[in-house]
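Hey L., structure's done. Input below.
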Amino acid sequence: MFVSTVSVYEGWPVQPLTEESAVLDCPADVGADFGYDGDPGPSIYGFTKAGSERAVLEAFGDRRVAVLRPGVILGPREYVGRLPWWLRRFERGGRVLAPGRPERAVQPVDVRDVAAFALTTATGPTGTFNVTATGDDSRDERSATKSPARPLHGRLM
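Output:
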């Protein structure tokens, strides 16, 4: 099992994506600075993760590997500070100025759900799986703690 990221997709973060969407082209043996950072994407991070996926698949074969592509991961011990900051801000009440377009969905996934699915793939299915929340309640500040993770076989964003 290899934990990758949705950042490997050529269309991330502006296009709807599935596991069959085009992935950034990156050789398996490149260094950490391969690629470029675009705005809004792609990123050097996405390129190097795509190269890492390729290296894992070349070494083990696609019948022996599950590649997990989570989106934004939140939960206990999250050190970036995204979730705690937003929860404290919503707790204060009032209007909240937030970045981006209101119609753009965000599908955070709880780290415990990612871990549970990773354990499942250790003895179960192989293949590539987008691992995000459902997106059904993505505009609700509580969604990060309520939405179960599962591999998506449809629209990611």
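The helical segments are 44-60, 82-92, 111-123, 143-146. The mean pLDDT is 84.

-- N.
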